[in-house]
């Protein structure tokens, strides 16, 4: 899992390099794609970046033609960030080799096995969310009040 995760990061970095943007900007664009039209504040909240850092990310992505800012019709002070669909499709094309490779892997599994793998992936995602939240909570605690982050050893499975 760690190797696959690390390789996924490296693949994303390669996509970003080919697209001519920073990997962190590509990750923010992916979050925008998943979240849909969001404010810069929401993007900062989801990524954990400061609003100032998000402004820089959005500026770079907008300059590259990948996202655009849209004013809210109901409240002109509110600005939403949205992915430019044509640009997202071009970046999506860079993931086709990865998608094809994964489809070859998945084709070897039965429906039942795929359901188990999907359940594993969904539950694993929830575990990562919980662990991320806990670690962020650690950072939000004043240093003098932080508990030690002692790593406990898990029992080995037979």
Automatic annotation (TrEMBL):
One of its GO terms (molecular function) is DNA-binding transcription factor activity. It holds the Pfam family MarR. Residues 137-158 are annotated as: Disordered. One of its GO terms (biological process) is response to stress. Residues 1-126 form the HTH marR-type domain. InterPro entries: HTH_MarR-typ, MarR/SlyA-like, WH-like_DNA-bd_sf, WH_DNA-bd_sf. Residues 137-151 have a biased composition (Basic and acidic residues). Transmembrane segments: none annotated. This is Transcriptional regulator. It comes from Bradyrhizobium centrolobii.
